[in-house]
Every structure is written in C-alpha cells, then in structure tokens.
C-alpha cells in the first residue's frame, strides 16, 4: 500500500513540475514555380516527443507566404522541443510535408525561419 501511495505522489510531483515554455516563430514560404501555393499554406507548430508530438498551435500563410505562429508546451523532463511543419502542394498535385529542425528558442526571443523554399 505504501508503494502505491509513494508512486502516486511521485507522479503528481512530476506532473506539477513539468517545464512549460512558449515560443514564437515567423517566416515566409516561397514556391517559385507556382506563387499561388504560397498563399494559405498550413503551418503547424508541434512539440517533438518520443511517441506522439504535441500540437502547440497552427496558422496559415498570408497572400505573400508570410506566417507568424505562437504556442506553448510542457515537458516533464527538460524543455519542449518545438518545430514547424509546413503542408503544401508546391510543384506537386500531392500534398508535401516539410518539417524544420527542432528549435530551442523561447519567448521573448523569436525563432525566425526566414525564407523556406518549397520547390526544392
């Protein structure tokens, strides 16, 4: 019985001690072959985890391909590992998914991805 209570308390402590961080990312997607595909591209910010990545937030690009997304996540061990996923049909009838590298940049700093070229 003592073991069960100790295990439960330990789990509650770990959950309460989860590290929560927020990040803001900006950038622009470019589709040289078909600039119309720059507009309204899906941008997702996720926290990379071992099993299932946690969604942090999502947005769409404007008519010039620019985006800004802000999201927060918590990890029990260490800081969140946010990254950006871009869904596009640039140069393809099939949807392509482009995943950026994990960024360890948290507010007040901004993760500036600059130009992301879609038709490589």
UniProtKB/TrEMBL annotation:
Leader sequence segment: 1-18
Entries under Pfam families matching the protein: TTR-52 (PF01060)
Keywords carried by this UniProt record: Signal
Top-level taxon in the UniProt lineage: Eukaryota
InterPro entries: Transthyretin-like, Transthyretin-like_sf
One of the record's GO cellular component terms: cell surface
PANTHER family: TRANSTHYRETIN-LIKE FAMILY PROTEIN (PTHR21700:SF25), TRANSTHYRETIN-LIKE FAMILY PROTEIN-RELATED (PTHR21700)
Similarity comment: family membership: Belongs to the nematode transthyretin-like family.
Protein name: Transthyretin-like protein 46
Species this protein is from: Romanomermis culicivorax
